[in-house]
Design goal:
Oligomer: single chain
Number of domains: 1
Number of helices: 15
Radius of gyration: 25 Å
Helix content: over 70%
Shape: elongated
Distance between the termini: 52 Å
Largest sheet: none
Length: 274
């Protein structure tokens, strides 16, 4: 099996993940974490990967990608719980608190009022929240659970869905960051030791320009590893996950405005006829 055929087959396997969330928020972080090793193997040994390509294709057919997706999710969920404890609770719960300050006072009061009607349950006042913060958080968490269940229409709530994917991607990527950094370092280490120190000495003695010191395949492997190392250490951070988490939380709460709008009688009747 040629390298091109392997890549094409792998791309087709990825496209079998019809659920955009599972593909983008779970599978992609796992593949990116392994990308330095994948790129290094293809760059250095692309013409010798026939048997390995066949084994990988077999593993993919047996569910390797689903395993990677599930593993990324589990690592992300573990990280999520630790982050929420550090932040002071789930972001969607926090933004509904009177003491949080994410929304303006009038805006928050409006959201509370709409959620009260949707849930058929009164919301805690400032005094209630102060005297029983855990009880207030339980009401807010229940409201957010209701909102998540009521906003599963990804076409109607497209922006919310995109925010959810962005948060899921960053959360799962953060859960895999140590593995990803190790993958980058392992790739760089392998390029440096695979032919021994004598090879570098002889190249140094024979090189007439800096470009002639490295092979194209080595530049590809080193470049990919360094770029990914930079991304994993500067972009995939707790701060970036927190920004995505609170963006999603704000969008989720604001969805109550759409849910609170009752369809007109004529529209409901038309839907029944269709």
């Amino acid at each position: 099996m040629t390298g091109g055929a392997s890549v094409s087959g792998f791309a087709k396997a990825i496209n079998q993940f019809s659920d955009p969330y599972e593909r983008q928020a779970r599978l992609y972080p796992a593949l990116l974490a392994l990308s330095p090793i994948i790129v290094t193997a293809m760059a250095l040994y692309g013409d010798k990967l026939g048997l390995i390509s066949g084994v990988v294709s077999l593993l993919v057919a047996c569910g390797l990608l689903h395993l990677l997706s599930d593993y990324a999710r589990s690592r992300g969920k573990e990280k999520e719980q630790a982050l929420w404890r550090k932040w002071g609770g789930a972001p969607s719960t926090q933004v509904l608190r009177h003491r949080d300050g994410t929304f303006e006072v009038g805006e928050l009061r409006g959201y509370h009022g709409k959620l009260e009607k949707l849930m058929g349950k009164s919301f805690p006042s400032i005094a209630d929240e102060t005297s029983d913060p855990q009880g207030a958080d339980a009401v807010y968490a229940e409201a957010c659970g209701m909102l998540r269940g009521a906003t599963r229409d990804t076409k109607k709530f497209n922006l919310l869905f995109k925010d959810n994917i962005a948060y899921g991607f960053r959360r799962n990527a953060l859960g895999l960051r140590n593995i990803a950094v190790a993958s980058c370092i392992a790739s760089l280490f392998w390029v440096s030791i695979r032919q021994g120190p004598s090879m570098w000495i002889s190249r140094y003695q024979a090189a007439t320009t800096p470009e002639s010191f490295f092979l194209v395949s080595e530049v590809t492997a080193i470049g990919a590893s360094l770029v990914m190392l930079l991304i994993w250490t500067t972009f995939i951070t707790e701060k970036s996950v927190q920004a995505a988490a609170f963006s999603y939380a704000r969008m989720l709460v604001s969805a109550c405005e759409v849910l609170a709008i009752k369809p007109k009688a004529g529209s409901a009747k038309k839907e029944k006829i269709n």
